């Protein structure tokens, strides 16, 4: 092989070797660069994750610092416009029947539970003493009338004789005076006879009105003492129950519902599911100082007699809706020294609002002023809640 060709061959080999070394160096550099880039990317990603985690932690901390509350909207209007109060029934007319004359009970005609009409004979009393006094009074009256007749004749005769001067004026005046005295005696005896006849008429005891005999407190042969110096004993007790009076003590806050003419319904335990309708007739127009109640009378028609006097009743009175009110649960109220408050959420802040309560329904209360149906009221607010506190509304649907 010629020398020149050998030189060229060596030169080519050297060049090729250099190119390979140069390529291997480039690969090393590229590999190292890739490693550096990967490491740097990992460091950057890790740093970014740490920053993101710190930001999430900060947000979570801030969110946890904001109290979460549950809110409700007040319900418009009171749920119940009727107040139920205890009452008792009483007969429309109720009276004891006494004797007006003394004696012994001769007979009685009606017992308890009997329906009687006005004027019915209930009992008869045997009064021998009154009968004897009446006979004597009538005899005294007859004597007085005879004396009066003689005095009248004498007075007329003296008047005629005076015209002829046969008697003196004094004698005529004496005759006139005797006539006037005998006239007065007759009138007195007539009054005594009338009194005793009236007493004798009381031997028959009559019903003073239509009703039911609820008590009989005498029997045959019982001594009846109607003297003024001793307490009388009632013979019968009579009640009229075609209409019954229901008396109920209305608490002072509900007295506005106790106006005459208002309607009311009455229920009794012995008639479940049934109500009797009545009308408020009158009230006492005065609050009782001891109970702070107003006595009210409700009259209920009772033609069938099912309602009995003395029965315990529940009286349902409709309350007037004079103000526009709302109702909220009782656990929305806060008792502060400034007064009663509720907490409402407005623009992400809690505010304490003064309220005025009306009727208490147990789990709910009526709010007369301070709230609207559109307000978001916090349920069971914390006692340490301050007006203006930032709050978040708890959403139960998200869980």
Give the SSE layout:
Elements: H1 3-65, E1 68-69, E2 71-72, E3 75-76, E4 82-97, E5 103-108, E6 115-116, E7 121-126, H2 128-163, H3 169-201, E8 204-206, E9 211-216, E10 223-224, E11 236-251, E12 263-267, E13 275-287, E14 293-301, E15 312-318, E16 326-329, E17 333-336, E18 339-346, E19 349-354, E20 356-360, E21 364-369, E22 377-378, E23 389-390, E24 392-393
Parallel strand pairs: 1-24
Antiparallel strand pairs: 2-22, 3-16, 4-11, 4-15, 5-7, 5-10, 6-9, 7-8, 9-11, 11-14, 12-13, 12-15, 13-14, 16-21, 17-18, 18-19, 19-23, 20-21
Helix pairs in contact: 2-3
And the CATH topology of the domain at 101-216?
A: Helix Hairpins
Tell me the span between the first and last alpha carbons: 92 Å
Shape label: rod-shaped
β-strand amount: 25-35%
Pattern of helices and strands: HEEEEEEEHHEEEEEEEEEEEEEEEEE
Unreliable stretches (pLDDT < 50, length at least 5) are: none
CATH class membership of the domain at 101-216: Mainly Alpha
With strands numbered from the N-terminus, the spatial order across the biggest sheet is 4-11-14-13-12-15
The proportion of residues forming helix, as a percent range, comes to 25-40%
Question: How many individual helices?
Answer: 3
Biggest sheet statistics: 6 strands, antiparallel, barrel
| Structural class based on helices, strands and sheet pairing | alpha+beta
Which second-level CATH architecture of the domain at 101-216 applies?
A: Orthogonal Bundle
- What's the alpha carbon Rg, rounded to whole Å? 55 Å
The average pLDDT is: 83
Q: CATH homologous superfamily of the domain at 101-216 - what is it?
A: Helix hairpin bin
Number of distinct beta strands = 24
């Amino acid at each position: 092989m010629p020398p020149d060709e050998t030189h060229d061959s060596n030169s080519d080999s050297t060049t090729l070797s250099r190119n390979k070394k140069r390529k291997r160096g480039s690969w090393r550099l590229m590999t190292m660069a890739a490693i550096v880039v990967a490491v740097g990317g990992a460091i950057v990603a890790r740093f970014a994750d740490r920053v993101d985690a710190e930001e999430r932690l900060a947000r979570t901390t801030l969110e946890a610092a904001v109290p979460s509350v549950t809110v409700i909207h007040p319900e418009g209007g009171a749920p119940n416009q009727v107040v139920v109060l205890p009452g008792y029934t009483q007969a429309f007319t109720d009276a004891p029947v006494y004797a007006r004359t003394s004696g012994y009970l001769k007979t009685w005609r009606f017992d308890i539970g009997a329906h009687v009409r006005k004027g019915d004979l209930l009992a008869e009393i045997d009064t021998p003493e009154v009968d004897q006094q009446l006979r004597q009074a009538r005899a005294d009256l007859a004597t007085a009338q005879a004396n009066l007749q003689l005095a009248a004749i004498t007075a007329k005769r003296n008047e005629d004789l005076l015209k002829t001067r046969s008697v003196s004026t004094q004698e005529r005046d004496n005759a006139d005076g005797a006539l006037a005295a005998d006239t007065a005696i007759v009138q007195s005896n007539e009054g005594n006879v009338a009194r005793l006849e009236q007493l004798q008429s009381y031997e028959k005891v009559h019903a003073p009105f239509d009703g039911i005999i609820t008590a009989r407190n005498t029997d045959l042969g019982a001594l009846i003492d109607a003297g003024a110096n001793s307490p009388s004993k009632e013979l019968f007790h009579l009640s009229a129950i075609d209409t019954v009076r229901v008396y109920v003590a209305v608490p002072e806050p509900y007295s506005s519902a106790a106006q005459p003419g208002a309607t009311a319904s009455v229920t009794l335990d012995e008639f479940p599911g049934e109500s009797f309708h009545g009308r408020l007739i009158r009230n006492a127009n005065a609050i009782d100082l001891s109970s702070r109640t107003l006595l009210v009378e409700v009259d209920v028609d009772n033609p069938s007699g099912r309602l009995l006097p003395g029965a315990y009743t529940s009286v349902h009175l409709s309350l007037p809706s004079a103000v526009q009110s709302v109702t909220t649960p009782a656990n929305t109220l806060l008792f502060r020294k400034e007064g009663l408050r509720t907490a409402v959420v407005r623009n992400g802040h809690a505010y304490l609002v003064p309220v005025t309560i009306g009727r208490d329904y147990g789990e709910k209360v009526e709010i007369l002023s301070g709230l609207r149906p559109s307000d978001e009221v916090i349920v069971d607010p914390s006692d340490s809640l301050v007006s203006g506190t930032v709050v978040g509304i708890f959403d139960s649907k998200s869980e």
